[in-house]
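Lab meeting prep.
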Amino acid sequence: MNYIDLALEKCKELDNLVIRVYGGYGRNYYDLGFKEKAIENYSIAIDIAKGNPKANARHLQYFYGLRSIIYEENKNIKAFYKDIQNAHHAVPNTQTASRMAKYFISYHKNLDSAKYYLDLGEKFYNSGKIPVYQKSVLLKNYGRYYSEKKDFKKSAQYYEEALEICKKLKNHRT
């Protein structure tokens, strides 16, 4: 029995490595502009991670999130929503809640749902040690939300706060 347990433990370590390798391929293909190859590799990483979803929840969240970005860029909003929803269910946090809000602001036009996810994102952020980058994503989506509500002054304030964070982080993609 000890050998079986040892073999199972080694397989878990191997799965983790394989998940990370396919995820790395996905990121590299995306950076090179090969979006379909990136989706293919993210999908392989996700499929392997789904074999042990509890242990691989962070991988699932991360790779669903990365794949959702490509789907959104490709205007495949149905797949974008499915992936961001899966990412949020895997490990809900400020960023996934903010991206769910973005879906409801930009694509589904349901401001009540958007506000729910923005408030949830704020709650996650205030509850613990969350990277400040996630706060910038939240603030940007608050800006979208208030812009949609035609409160442009409040919208601009949120966008400016998000921009300040990004300048400090030197991340201008947000």
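Slide two material, second protein:
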Amino acid sequence: MPAGVCLGLSILTKGLAGAVFVGIFAGCIAVPAAPKPGGGGRQPSTIARLATALTIAGGVAFCLAAPWYVAMERAHPGYLHYYFIERHLRGYLTSTQRHAGRVWWYYVPIVLGGALPWTGYVASALRHIRRRGERPLISIAWAWFGLGLLFLSIGESKLVTYVLPIFPALALAIAEEIVTFGQSRMGLAIQIVTLVVLPIATVIALPFMLDAPIGLTWIVPMAAMGGVLLIARRALRATTIETAIGAGALMALVSFIAVLTASLPRAAAYLTSRDLAAALNAGPHLPSRVAILDERIGSIVFYLSPALRAEATPDRIQITSLSSAIEHVRVDSPDAILAVRDGQLRRFTRLFPNPPQPSVRAGTFSVFRADHLRDALGANRH
């Protein structure tokens, strides 16, 4: 029952991809666990028990997910064909989707990067696959990983998030490698360097990727670097695998906490529109038009109050380009607003001889009223 509920929820959130990976995993369990000849026939075979469990889980999943899909089809006729045929089947087999046409090895660097800081153990784990006869359970993890990667690589549509379901298999394989064969020099070296560099690298990336100022966010990463190096000494001198694993886990914890407390909050401020939505929520109604310069509107709609969200029709709130923004400013109602993220502000204000002052600041957004911008454009003509 719990497995069926989880499968049903995965189908609700990710469509048939969840069912496909469950099928791959079940096949990987069934093949090596098939009953041997002469093993007796009184007890049901593992394959039969697995088939029974999958049938029950599939039934529970169907009962859980079907009502929502039926409701969507009734509300939007043709939805099931679009979602399961166009998005799933044709998306996998043809290049009709926006994220199609990528190279077959697209996921290889993603897997290697996603395995950090333990990527250094992948090579040695692969070398030890030939000894899988001594470790039958780890063969299941490698088959799960390999078949999942093959399935994704064959598909025409490829996205970074598609590969996430195979990382548990890779994690199991790497963990088994470390426990069975110990820490390799290369693996430990890559692990230490990654965890030392990661916190400060994420801070340095902020102005390049998000136009976000570093400010004092470097302090925590620098402290984390020192902490990781101190723990690394213990890892290098460890005489037991338990001590080495404990030190490695502590290094990862320190490094990841630094990223979570220093870099990610600053990045989140430049990726969310929560503050802008809060400024709009302070009023009883949306302005006649809300335009956001080169920003997706999903975040602001999410954070709007229910009353304002009901007013957020496509003609009331929308993304705009720089040229389109100026065109609309000339004809918009006085209360219409244009929200400009800090990273776009300099490019925007260059259009005016005297940079217009925002009516309000909302987090990393400057909010301009249309009538004020229109006045600034009029001054520009004179």
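Talking points for slide two:
Strands lie at 290-293, 317-320, 337-341, 360-362, 365-369.
Residues 46-75 form the longest helix (30 residues).
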